[in-house]
User: Fold these one by one.
Assistant:
Number 1:
Amino acid sequence: MAIYMIVDVDIHDLDAYEIYKSQVTPIISKFGGEYLVRGGAHEVLENDLWTPTRMVMVRFPDKESALGFINSDEYAPVKKIRRDNSDGTVLIVEGL
């Protein structure tokens, strides 16, 4: 079953985040991930729970692949770049 990783990120340092983006892309691909949304324009239609900032959505073939990516030794130093230069929420959800 496909797994979707949904990320809402508020970037504080755009230059550092560009470094993150260039380094994370091949790691995502290595774990079978495919970007579906990467910071495109969005419009909030209802807002009872949360106000999104910059949305990213990645489809992985399964939960093991998504967790393998987020917990990998290869991603750890890249994750640090993201965490040092942005705030965010990351979740996974089962798809169809």
Number 2:
Amino acid sequence: MADETNTQADVPVETATAAPEGDQREARGRGRGRGGNDRDRPGGNRGGRRDDRRGGRGGAEDGGEELIEKLVHINRVSKTVKGGKRFGFAALVVVGDGKGRVGFGHGKAREVPEAITKATASAKKKMVRVPLKEGRTLHHDGKGRFGAGKVNLRSAPAGTGIIAGGPMRAVFESLGVHDVVTKSVGTSNPYNMIRATFDALTDQTSPKSVSQRRGKKIADLLGRGGATVVEAEAAADAITE
């Protein structure tokens, strides 16, 4: 009798424990299957939708073109607070497309990569267009000034190269200038040097813009420098900006 009661007790215990485990496994399998389908479905992952929106926004800012980004200077800054000092970093970045557009910006953050990202975003928003002669040099000489910094820019023949200091060189390389001679006087502060350089670049004008403003032909303006009519017309045809 003892054996019969034991076997009768074992049977319901096994059946009672096996049924719930099977149901739980099936439920878990269904839940995993639904979750997997959602992740595999295009656009099903919320993170993927965020990445798509970020990518579209970045393309709109850059205009779908490749930009040249150059880090000019990084400075460590500190702020004195009640508990001591908080250190951060300030970055100066120059951005250009190599085809006549350039801008600069600066940003501050607690970490260097974040400061560079802020400076790059600021530079992209403040890009300006500078007319170039033959796509390689400036149309005419120029002077710029900011604070104690003074810069002199001179156009140069082909093969001269970029003769400029560190901060100014970054501006011309991003701009797409291949031949230029520059001189910086008064300060070596990279912020003031770049601002003075942009002051000189914004004053650059092209024969095309001058002819439109004065209501004359480009050949007439170029012929006043002593060139013949044929040379003036050839030079006018070669000017694209």
Number 3:
Amino acid sequence: MSKITLMVLLVLFWPGFAPASGQKHVDLPFPIGEKLLYEVRWGVIPAAHATLEVLPATEDNGARGLHFVMTARTNEFADMFYKYRNRIDSFTDPILSRSRGFSKREQERSRIRNEDVRFDWERMETRITKNEEEERRGVALVPGAFDPLSVFYAFRIRTLKTGKILEVPVTDGKKLAQGKATVVGREEITVHGQTYDCYVVEPDLKDLGGVFRKSPGATMRIWVTTDELRLPVRVRSKVIVGYFTADLVAVE
């Protein structure tokens, strides 16, 4: 059951792509206050719920920026086998050109973990505080790096077309990888009774850990609407333990 919870975190916001170098303004396709609700299934079995939310802009040391939140939790049935709760808060600059840091609050069964990652752009490194311990150095940064949540929103400001390859540096504070994905096609799908015209995006999973590291041939596909909102309406992944699907059930 633990692999289900890993998928909740990975499937919703892995691929993302930064605005063009030197860009000073960006039109956001998502409104402040937007909240996306997802149901996550393992095969045909509902296993978890997740949300993605855009909160009002915040002040960070006098600088205005964007604030994103993800929550994930197993449902009552899955709780009997593997209880999981997670919240991630992510902060970026106002034009989504790089991350300023993120925090993670996680409960796995009875174990609770807290972690704060600060992107120190003066030192060009991440700084990590875990379970309120003393801050320590993380990984060296590269320009335009995002954390694993803000990268999802950076992805939504880019125009897609079939055949396009997208790349961006992503870090969880401890490891930095070059995220890469390809737009492999376009198709209509029906999710919870609503039909969407979507681009189909395939991320490159070679740099992902967790469930993918143990799954030779693991694949993932993300269906993103072709309209100006660029909503991710479905994410599906095949791994060694079967198929996981996250479907958009509501937009608030």
